[in-house]
Amino acid sequence: MEKLIGLKKIKTAVFISGTGSNLKNIIKFSKLKKSPISILLIVSNTNKAKGLSYAYQFKIEKKIFNFKDFDKAEKNIITLLQKKKIKLICLAGFMKILSKKFIKIFGGKIINIHPSLLPKYKGLNTHSRAIKNKDKFAGCTVHHVTGNLDSGKIILQRKIKIAAADNTISLKKKVLKQEHKLYPAAIMKIFN
Length: 192
Ligand code: GRF
Description:
Elements: E1 10-16, H1 21-30, E2 37-44, H2 53-57, E3 61-64, H3 70-83, E4 88-91, H4 100-105, E5 110-114, H5 126-132, E6 137-144, E7 154-161, H6 168-190
The chain binds 5-O-phosphono-beta-D-ribofuranosylamine (GRF).
């Protein structure tokens, strides 16, 4: 990834599909003086994403794409991202899989947060799988996005203990708290 030049902040887009707690957290982080990024765009594949409310709250441009026509939607996103000179794409609970073409165009500039200690539990339902397998630890990972799902180079991870009393809901809450620490730390790491 390129180095931060002078005081210019890295133009960043955040892609979401749901609640957007990571989005809110990244926006807050971006406003700190030490933050290397500035959020210019929020992209969602659905107008039902609760996280879109943060676009209004923080006055950030948002774009909702209709992924029913996937190729067309992606093409439009690419054009918009290029027009806005976006240099970092943070996936934060974005539930669509981007095409190989998209990943090639923005090669090395897309990162994702995943609620497990990758390479363990790629894909969905990470917390219930960890509990079902009686794992002692859970956690989250920020990684580079490649053509293979949840398999790109790991940037940072945070690990937590699973308590005997934990269920999927309590574990999700605990991990999410760690995600909010991890994503900014991972962004700092790539640009240092
Ligand atoms: C997070 O657990 C993230 O790791 C996963 O989806 C969830 C999104 O949560 N990819 P939120 O929308 O940021 O609250």
